[in-house]
Amino acid sequence: MKVRLTILNLILILTIFNQDMLAQNKRSNKEQEQKYLENIKKDSIDGVYIPTDLKDCFKQIDSFWADSIKAKVRKMTKNEFTANAHFGLGMWMRNNWRLWGGSRLSKYFNDLGVLHPDDMSGIILTSYYRYLMGQDIMLEEQISYYKDYWKKKKQ
Q: Closest by alpha carbon to 100, among 88, 116, 122, 84?
């Protein structure tokens, strides 16, 4: 009888604990949603300016990269640049421009159908390289590439 009572007590405790965790999760999700809605309207987050679109990204990168760095980039292939920059400049953008947590730049990409922060930074890096090289950015083609990738991944 004691064993049955103990098991019932354990089940009751776990049920109460689970309900408490679900309630906390709902509060946390609401807080995250509220923070997201606030951040997508801000021009700066934690003292870092958030670009509005791709051209504004170029303007920002141009402002903090010296001509000597741009000259080095121009000597690379697109694949060399994007691969080398993914965990450097790309990570900086994902974290500081809040591509993970929500910002007006992430919303810009979301509105274009680009949902993953790695894809967003990939588009920025590829586009910036093409911009430096005086090439067509081919934004629609890049967006289609990522949309197709995720569509195949789901299948």
A: 116
